[in-house]
């Protein structure tokens, strides 16, 4: 046999497996070797070519998943408003929450006392009782140097106050301003902005500057649900101060009272009316002429 790579061959006539290099062969042996090599190459059977089965390219089926588009409310109507009066106010107070202790009907005279929460750090955040006519602060209590006061609401002789970024709220006695309790809360942005309540459903309603309203149980202060505020153009962010009112609505069985959340939008001059069940904006007020008319 031959070792082809280095052309080594076994010497004929020897019983041992002695390998001799081609350089030690004679010319006759070399020519014999060349003929044998050529003959072997000619008579060697070449294997049949391997036939590979062609793989069919499978066309990927693109799954088209269509997400259900949430229903959008119709464009909210712009409601009329009428300027009635103006009152003195402390310009140094960065007002956040503002509420009458007992809102009056349209036929009764306005209450002379309002409750107000102010913001800013460094001891400037406070809860106040203010004489509406003169603007004089009748009573005040600070919220502390590290808290930024935000929205407030009055329920059952108690004042609930939010703070901005500390996820902390306070409960004060309406008459004495004594701090009754401190509570923790969590919103989408982990901030507190506006606060109001639905007395009949025993819910506090809060905002955090996002496009959500958060509903808390009035006793445990745990979140029970949330709705996303939207109009015909999409979701509406920077929901700020809140007020809850009841308005008469005509239905098939007559007129009934419907709860509505009024809210201002940060950096805008309009008030929106929100359905607390759906989050739809059902009406709006444009107050761009308020400063001019006032």
Task: Please explain how this structure is put together.
With 294 residues, the protein is mostly beta strands. It is built from two helices and 22 strands. It has helices spanning 27-43, 290-293, and strands at 2-3, 8-10, 19-21, 78-79, 95-100, 113-118, 126-131, 137-142, 149-155, 158-163, 168-173, 179-184, 195-198, 203-207, 212-217, 223-228, 230-231, 234-235, 239-251, 254-265, 270-274, 281-286. The protein has a five-stranded mixed beta sheet, with no helix packed on it. Strand 1 (2-3) and strand 2 (8-10) form a beta hairpin. The longest helix has 17 residues, at 27-43. The chain is globular, with a radius of gyration of 43 Å. The chain starts with a strand and ends with a helix. The model is unreliable at 1-27 (pLDDT under 50).
Topology of this structure?
Blueprint: E1 2-3, E2 8-10, E3 19-21, H1 27-43, E4 78-79, E5 95-100, E6 113-118, E7 126-131, E8 137-142, E9 149-155, E10 158-163, E11 168-173, E12 179-184, E13 195-198, E14 203-207, E15 212-217, E16 223-228, E17 230-231, E18 234-235, E19 239-251, E20 254-265, E21 270-274, E22 281-286, H2 290-293
Parallel strand pairs: 4-22
Antiparallel strand pairs: 1-2, 2-3, 5-6, 6-7, 7-8, 9-10, 10-11, 11-12, 13-14, 14-15, 15-16, 17-18, 19-20, 20-21, 21-22
């Amino acid at each position: 046999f031959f070792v082809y790579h280095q052309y080594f061959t076994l010497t004929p006539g020897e019983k041992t497996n002695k390998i001799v290099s081609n350089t030690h062969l004679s010319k006759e042996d070399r020519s014999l070797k060349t003929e044998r090599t050529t003959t072997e190459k000619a008579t060697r059977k070449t294997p049949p070519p391997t036939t590979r089965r062609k793989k069919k390219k499978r066309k990927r089926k693109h799954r088209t998943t269509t997400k259900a588009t949430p229903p959008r409310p119709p464009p909210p109507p712009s409601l009329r408003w009428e300027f009635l009066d103006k009152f003195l106010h402390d310009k140094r107070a960065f007002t956040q929450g503002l509420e009458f202790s007992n809102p009056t009907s349209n036929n009764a005279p306005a209450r002379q006392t309002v409750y107000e929460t102010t913001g800013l750090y460094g001891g400037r955040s406070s809860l106040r009782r203010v004489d509406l006519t003169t603007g004089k602060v009748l009573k005040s209590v600070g919220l502390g140097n590290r808290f930024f006061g935000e929205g407030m609401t009055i329920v059952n002789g108690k004042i609930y106050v939010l703070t901005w970024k500390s996820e902390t709220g306070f409960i004060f006695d309406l008459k004495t301003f004594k701090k009754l309790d401190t509570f923790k809360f969590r919103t989408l942005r982990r901030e507190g902005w506006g606060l109001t309540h639905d007395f009949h459903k025993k819910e506090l309603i809060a905002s955090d500057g996002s496009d959500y309203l958060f509903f808390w149980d009035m006793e445990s202060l745990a979140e029970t649900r949330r709705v996303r505020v939207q109009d015909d153009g999409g979701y509406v962010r920077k929901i700020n101060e809140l007020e809850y009112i009841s308005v008469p609505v005509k239905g098939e069985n007559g007129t009934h009272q419907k709860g509505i959340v009024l809210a201002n939008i940060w950096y805008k001059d309009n008030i929106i009316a929100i359905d607390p069940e759906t989050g739809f904006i059902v009406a709006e007020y444009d107050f761009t002429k308020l400063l001019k008319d006032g």
